[in-house]
Amino acid sequence: MDTMNTEFWFIGIGLITTLAAIVAYFINRWIIAIDTVLEKLITVVADLNTTVALLQTNQTNATSNCVSKHLIIDNRFTSHSEKLHEHSLDITTLKVDMASLKRDIRQTINN
């Protein structure tokens, strides 16, 4: 009877050890999978940080280019505005001259 108990103990310990080894194997595989995912996530986050920095630089460059282009356009608008003002004065002068010419012609015809 003693030998039978001892055999059951050895069989029980063997089964428990085998089950513990199987559980440890799957836990190890799970940890390796988690590590792989974490490494990929770290790489992706680093790539995203690089992309964000690049986009910020591009946006800053675009803003500075936009400001310089707006200055050029503003200068053009100012120049065009001055020319339009000059033309407006010329047109007004021509209208006044035409009115006085018409008046002179009428007076000449009437006299």
In short:
It is built from 1 helix and no strands.
Description:
The protein has 111 residues and is mostly helical. It has one helix spanning 2-110. The termini are far apart.
Give the low-pLDDT segments. Answer: none
Radius of gyration: 47 Å
Mean pLDDT: 89
Task: For the record, give the distance between the C-alpha atoms at the N and C termini, rounded to a whole number.
Answer: 158 Å
Q: What structural class is derived from the secondary structure elements? A: mainly alpha
**Portion in beta strands:** under 5%
| H-E order | H
DSSP summary, beta strand count: 0
Cα shape: rod-shaped
Helical residues, percent: over 70%
Quick one: biggest sheet?
none
| Count, helices | 1
Features:
111 residues; mainly alpha; rod-shaped
Write the layout of secondary structure elements.
Layout: H1 2-110
